[in-house]
Records
---
Amino acid sequence: MTALAGPTHDRGITTLTLDSPANRNALSAALVGELTAALDDCAADDTVRAVVLTHTGNTFCAGADLTAPPDPAAFVALMRRIVALPKPVVARVTGHVRAGGLGLLGACDISAAGPGATFALTESRLGLAPAVISLPLLPRTDPRAAARYYLTGERFDAAEAARIGLITLAAGPAEDIDKALVPVLDGLRKASPQGLAASKELVTATVLKSFDQHAEDLIARSAALFASAEAREGMTAFLERRDPAWVL
């Protein structure tokens, strides 16, 4: 069974759909591999002007699949592929996003979320840290907000996500997210492939610099955290649906 549905095509826009409801679209090794391959296909296809990344179910991505996690280097390569793809990648979110899922959003060029979307960087509550996802997140997110949500793991809504720079636009309570995305997708269809690629290079240069300078260190840091006793307790407690030992 694949973890990715599609692709579907509509007037130059290719939609890739995270479709692994059994684990709430968590980042498994399979999902990371399939999404990377699909993006490679989009890059090589001259009929694709832009990519939309969306999901089935009420969760865009629950973070790392703790039962079948991807190799951290493979996940970093996926995020970098999104950033470096010579075609815009647009995230369409109507559900919950947790931990590593925010890394996917941070890597996308444009992200839109509906009123039912919620976000949280829950790593610190598991004895971990948002290590590798900092590569796309920190260059694009308000630093004060990043400090708050990295440290507390608090949940926040789409309006707050837009305010802090995590996403581009938040659809209002009575607004349809697809209607909100119409001017975005129409604008991408009107742009030339060369113009899009060159413009994307300009706006992603700082993010790519983050990957080139810090990826190796953060991959090692992530691996060390996952191997620690506190992380084992945190992940076990999560799977057992109980508080970890350090909760006061």
---
Amino acid sequence: MEKNCIDRKALRYNFLKKIIIRFDYDGMDDTELDQVISSISIELKKHDYTSRTVEMEKEMQFEFNDPESGDYAELYGKKVREQKVFVFHNENPQIRLSISSSSACITIEETKYVDCLKYCDVLWKVMLIISEPEKVPFFMFKRFGLRKINQCFLMDINHLNEYFEPSHYHVFRLPDEADIKEKVMQIRDSLEIADYNVNLIRTLVRGELRGKEAYQVNYDADMYLIDSDSIAELMKNEDKIAQMNDWLFTLYKDAVTEAFLNQLIDGSFDKNMIAGVEANGEDTV
């Protein structure tokens, strides 16, 4: 099947390892969070969340007018502070929802594909409680992001571009120099697509798997909004999150070769060459 004809539902295998759906905001303190957490807990109890814990976590403080910030603070020297985080645990142990006075985030670490959009509904309900002017009068959206992290392992780096496009992944070579080996390759792009921003990171890391040399292949795409009015509009129009999800799939297809995409449809990929590819569950993302 030609690449441009392949849709998400056609794929029966994946190497998606983590989905992060996250709001960042200003104008709330821990006292205000304590006042709304009971209402949030009651709401989440209706949606398969079975327990709650409180943790102290170190959290990065970012400048969100910088399109290259977000989760890459090590490059920009952002401040770190410790804050209280309420963590809600789903009946599916791979899903958790974390809420602090500066962010609300659902993290899905499920090797079987799940419909990430259905978890947006739950997060939307949480944000409606948090953003009520009567409860948090100075609330203001700072950032909304949908991030997907794909990861697999390639046993022979010479076969890299049978699976991943050379425009996204390459291995450093010098003619007649067989002693040179790639240790780490990383390509970062900061893009604007339609009304959205995207941080796109492709990484190769040499290591060991099952006692043999192997390369970890990461594909990390984070699509986000940093305009408060646009985020408020997204809250009212759920089609926008579906549009973001579709853009992420388009970017993913651009990085994966047509041959490998077809192998993810029929399961014919070489399991001795590429590891970490899983069969889908009943749901698709």
---
Amino acid sequence: MNRKVIIYDDDTDLLEVCSLILTARNFEVVLRDKCTEIIHDIATHRPDVILMDNWIPDIGGVKAIQLVKSSSEYRHIPVIFFTAHNNAEELAAEAGADYSLQKPFDISELEMVVADAVRRK
């Protein structure tokens, strides 16, 4: 059975690249360009990992992660926060994310962080 990841980012190029990389690693990938329905998305797709951009339309990445982590049903799902800001780790900690990636990130960084998140789940 494939692991499932939901990626939230309004950058369609980044969504496509991440999707290609993770699909090649046997992940089922769900792409979203906004996080309006994040709890519905999680309930519907039951991801093993969530990747969340900081500047995602509607409520933003920090608030979206806080919403997920405040849910007793979904707080166990690892969240990888990514941003182009220099303070990625600080923002990730503020949000309650489990991991952070600084944009632009290497394919190997993405693979390593996602693999670690899945292992620890």
---
Amino acid sequence: MRRIGEQAVFGPLRDRLGLTHAKNVLTAGAMLSPDVIRFFRAIGVELRQLYASTETIGTIHLPGDVKLETVGVVVPGVEIKICEDQEILIRSNGRFGGYYNAPDKTGEAIDEEGWYHTGDAGYMREDGHLVYLERVKDMIELANGHTFSPQFIEGRLKFSPYIQDIMTIGGFDMDFVSAIIVINFENVARWAEKHGIAFTTFVDLSQKQQVYELIKQDVLRVNESLPPQGRLRKFVILHKEFDADEGELTRTRKLKRRTLYQKYSEILEALYSDTENVRVSAEVKYRDGRSGVVETELNIMEVTD
């Protein structure tokens, strides 16, 4: 079967991508999603990630030791240290000597012990693989002093076919990370019908316990790639989609966080209380074309490892 697939699909696809004769394919500059790497490897392209900068090399996926959610293991001759704020520091003989005619900038980048401060946040797993999160300046600090990466969590969860949008929540007055999640109605509806789960509206479907369990599995999967203090601990599934016409998104579908914080302040308060649900008013559109306004309760799910 693999031979047939190779001749009919995989070979022509690699040829179309210009990768027919590629032996070592490396990617750097930005984290690729596990799904992208999985796709290339499925069609016979042994894509591997590396973590480096103009100033120095850091880590690389070794053949036979590719972990999709990481950027590989430390290159021989290189040392990596993670600071308290999760900044990645690198020291090696292959590090650059400094910035041309910019001693002050060089002094900011390289400390007295020879460590190059990357400005990137990440952590080392027990298996020796490095996980890149995002720029340190974009990390958000929680009340307990730990930091988390909103873009990392949101980006990874949006690769789920069942999640359309997500806004992570956390800050100096919050002890853990939570989220408001919007389901992909079409995909979740198809999943529900396949599993014999009856529903009438978006609101009805979004609050089904089975749907919460479905989304929870995606959350648990992403949590596995995060340090314990930066994991998602609670989430609520919103009763509607985020809407650009309501000022919740830009026209390119980027979150307008300030607007969302204000509009859904009651939901945010509920996420950081002991309540298990929060009551909201919702406009609903039935499958037969009728519409109306209903009062509904949004469930709050706690996530434990």
